[in-house]
Amino acid sequence: MANAVTAIPAAAPAQALAHFQALFAFETDCWDTCEALQSGEPGFVLVDTRSPQLFARGHIAGAINLPHRKIIASRMSAYPPHTLFVTYCAGPHCNGAARGALRLAELGYPVKLMAGGITGWLDEGFELQRSAQGVVA
Asked: What is the pLDDT at residue 132?
């Protein structure tokens, strides 16, 4: 008996393989981001795309605050063109990280989105830092 899950057949395994492999070129998760940050040399710049007010109330230690509307060529010229950025926002209900990633990609930077955002970070049991350190005016 068909239901909403089985009514549309699953993709062929080769299609599923290509799809899920491609996701990792665009996304990372909170756990992998945390481990990379703790290594001391993460290899990326972590960007909180939320407002400065939300950033000050709690953000991931080591992140810079750069709302997506402030991601412009003149500001980003301080970073070498090969700099990898990882964006995050409030969580799955927010598209600020995707908007920030889009802006960075438009400027020619490699970028990934941290799936889950702050919601995912807290769900994993990780702490937030509460300060204005890292706010970009």
From this structure: 60
